[in-house]
Amino acid sequence: MAELIFFSGTMDCGKSTLALQMDYNHRARGRGGVRFSRNDRAGESRISSRLGLETDAVEVLDSTDFWEEVMLRRTRGQRVDYLICDEAQFYTPEQVEQLAKVVDEIDVDVFAFGITADFRTRLFPGSQRLIELADRVQVLQVEALCWCGRRATHNARTVDGVMVTEGAQVVVGDVDMVVEAAAAPEAEHVPVVGYETLCRRHFMRRVTAHGASLMAQQDQLLPFDVDACLWQGSGGPGESRKPGGKA
Questions:
Q1: Which of 50, 88, 112, 241 has the greatest number of CB atoms lying within 10 Å of its CB?
Q2: What single DSSP character describes residue 12?
Q3: At what angle do helices 93-106 and 66-75 cross, to 10 degrees?
Q4: 51 Cβ partners below 8 Å, 6+ apart?
């Protein structure tokens, strides 16, 4: 029996690597398949892994109809036993329904790979529909890590290293754990959009790797033994004297 399986996880958990591995395994057993992707970091019509693996794919557009894509190939005599659908979070809900129809009506396996939630912790429309319709939803076991070493559970968007929680749901960028602001004049500076994975604690506190690095640098500037009289409220030289006070 064919199945619609959604492999989900945060960034950096190996979704595209698994997609390429599954495609290789099925082809090695004589099965015919089609690879699909959308908005891959390597460019149009590609599936790429951060490990350096990369191959060609069919670019999914808003106008793509998966039922027509499969039927067109079969009428041409091409064998289609399965579909690899990477970056499935960017598919429309209607396209996910087409994938379900392909599974149910003509017994084609569909292996979809994607991120569940965006940088605002809201479900992508495509991912939501996959969760609703998939025969199985599998969370990948390869754990992405936050900069602190804890398991990363959230995807954060950064602009020049600073976490943001507003903006368009889809913006081109890449994972860059520490982004330094450009030294060019402000009028010439183009903001650098990046993404990183954070644990819930640091996502809620909006502490990115860039922010943690800045805080660590500030901590190093402090003396190891802080003179208490330098702090406000201590009555030391840093405070103004009150009339009648002792020297």
A1: 88
A2: T
A3: 40
A4: 17
Spatial separation of the C-alpha atoms in residues 183 and 175, rounded to whole Å: 21
Active-site amino acid positions: 87
182 — pLDDT class (breaks 50, 70, 90): very low
Give the Cα separation of 198 and 13 in Å (integer).
13
Q: Which of 81-90, 111-120, 172-181, 204-213 holds the top average pLDDT?
A: 81-90
The structure tokens listed for 81 are 């036993």
CA angle 117-55-26, nearest 5°?
85
* Count of C-beta atoms within a 10 Å radius of residue 17: 19
The residue type found at 113 is: F
Contacts of 71 (CB under 8 A, 6+ apart): none
Least confident of 60-74, 174-188, 203-217: 174-188
- Alpha-carbon distance of 58 to 197, in angstroms, equals 28
Global pTM exceeds 0.85: no
- Residue 66 near residue 95 (C-beta atoms within 8 A): yes
Output the six-digit token pair for 133: 């319709």
Q: What does the block give as tokens for 155? A: 């995807």
The Cα-based distances of 218 to 65, 181, 214, 222 in angstroms read 54, 17, 6, 7
